[in-house]
C-alpha cells in the first residue's frame, strides 16, 4: 500500500472504530424498565406517583386512553382445562417449571400475549401465556400441561402459589395505598408515561 493510500484509509478506519465502540456502548446500556411494581403514593390529575418495591419514587403521566384492570385472588381449583392463563415460572432443582404465580384470563382476554418469554419478576423467570390442556392433582399441588402456539410446557403449581384473575376497574381505583403494576414508556424528555395499570383489589399485591 502506498503512503498516500494509507493516509486515506487511516481516517476511515478511525471512523469505523469510533462507530463500533459507540454501538457497543449503546448495546451495553441497560434497557429502560418496561413496568414498575409498587404502591401508589399520590394521584394529581394525570400524574401518578408510585413508590416502587425497590424504594424508588416513580412519576408516571397517565395517557388519555389509559386502561385500568383489577386483580383479585381466586382458588387454585378455579384453573380449569381450557382456561387461558399466564404464569411466571422459575426452574426448580429437578428441572421442573415451578409457578411463582398464575393469572387466569377472562374469556374476552383469551390469546393475550400468547407464548413464552423471559420475564423480570425474578432471576431466570419466564412468562408463559397458554391454554391449559391437562391438570393433574398431586400431593404437592397441580401439574398443568399448558400449550401455546409455539410449544408446550409442564408447570407445577403448589398450594401456596398465588392464583388471581382480572376484573373490571377504572381510574377511580387508582388511589394512594393501592398496589399496582404500571406499564411505562420513557419519553424523549426523560419522563415516563403509562397507558396500562393493573391494580390489586382489597389490598392485594398483584403477584405477576
How is the secondary structure organized here?
Layout: H1 3-28, E1 35-44, E2 47-52, E3 57-73, E4 84-91, E5 97-104, E6 115-118, E7 126-138, E8 141-148, E9 151-157, E10 163-168, E11 179-186, E12 192-200
Parallel strand pairs: 3-12, 5-9, 5-10
Antiparallel strand pairs: 1-2, 1-11, 2-3, 3-10, 4-5, 4-7, 6-7, 7-8, 8-9, 11-12
Residue share in helices?
10-25%
Which stretches of 5+ consecutive residues score pLDDT under 50?
3-31
Rg estimate, integer Å: 23 Å
**Major sheet summary line:** 12 strands, mixed
Tally of structural domains: 3
Number of helices: 1
Compressed to H and E, one letter per element, the order equals HEEEEEEEEEEEE
Structural class, from helix and strand content?
Answer: mainly beta
Label the overall shape: elongated
Count every beta strand, where a strand is a DSSP E run of 2 or more residues.
12
Signal peptide: 1-27
Organism: Bradyrhizobium ottawaense
Protein name: DUF5666 domain-containing protein
Keywords: Signal
Amino acid at each position: 500500500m502506498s503512503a498516500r493510500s494509507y493516509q486515506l484509509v487511516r481516517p476511515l478506519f478511525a471512523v469505523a472504530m469510533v462507530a463500533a465502540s459507540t454501538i457497543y456502548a449503546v448495546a451495553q446500556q441497560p434497557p429502560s424498565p418496561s413496568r414498575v411494581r409498587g404502591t401508589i403514593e399520590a394521584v394529581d390529575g394525570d400524574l401518578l406517583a408510585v413508590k416502587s418495591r425497590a424504594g424508588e419514587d416513580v412519576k408516571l403521566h397517565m395517557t388519555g386512553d389509559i386502561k385500568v384492570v383489577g386483580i383479585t385472588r381466586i382458588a387454585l381449583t378455579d384453573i380449569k382445562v381450557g382456561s387461558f392463563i399466564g404464569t411466571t415460572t422459575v426452574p426448580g432443582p429437578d428441572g421442573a417449571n415451578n409457578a411463582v404465580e398464575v393469572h387466569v384470563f377472562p374469556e374476552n382476554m383469551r390469546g393475550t400475549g400468547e407464548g413464552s418469554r423471559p420475564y423480570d419478576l425474578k432471576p431466570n423467570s419466564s412468562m408463559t401465556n397458554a391454554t391449559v390442556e391437562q391438570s393433574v392433582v398431586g400431593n404437592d399441588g397441580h401439574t398443568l400441561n399448558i400449550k401455546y402456539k409455539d410449544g408446550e410446557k409442564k408447570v407445577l403449581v403448589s398450594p401456596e402459589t398465588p392464583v388471581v384473575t382480572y376484573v373490571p376497574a377504572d381510574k377511580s381505583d387508582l388511589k394512594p395505598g393501592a398496589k399496582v403494576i404500571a406499564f411505562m414508556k420513557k419519553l424523549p424528555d426523560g419522563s415516563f408515561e403509562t397507558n396500562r395499570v393493573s391494580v390489586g383489589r382489597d389490598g392485594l399485591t398483584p403477584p405477576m
